């Protein structure tokens, strides 16, 4: 077996491994997107005075709400589940 043939075979194996790794990353990213679409979204924001409030989104009902406290967010989550 000559050196060129060995290098060529190593490159092919390396490319196959790289392809499988890229395919696995693509699958993981796609899975995360699909799963995360069903998860509620909660974003903490601040008004002009610096007070915190929360914008929440329920993807199953496609409704947004604005809540004033973490306690309200917890109640919203409990009601949702």
TrEMBL record:
It comes from the Bacteria. This is Uncharacterized protein.
């Amino acid at each position: 077996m000559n050196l060129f043939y060995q290098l060529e075979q190593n490159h092919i194996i390396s490319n196959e491994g790289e392809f499988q790794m890229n395919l696995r990353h693509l699958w993981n990213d796609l899975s995360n997107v699909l799963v995360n679409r069903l998860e509620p979204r909660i974003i903490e924001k601040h008004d002009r005075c610096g007070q915190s409030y929360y914008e929440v989104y329920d993807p199953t009902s496609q409704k947004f709400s604005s809540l004033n406290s973490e306690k309200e967010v917890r109640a919203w989550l409990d009601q949702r589940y």
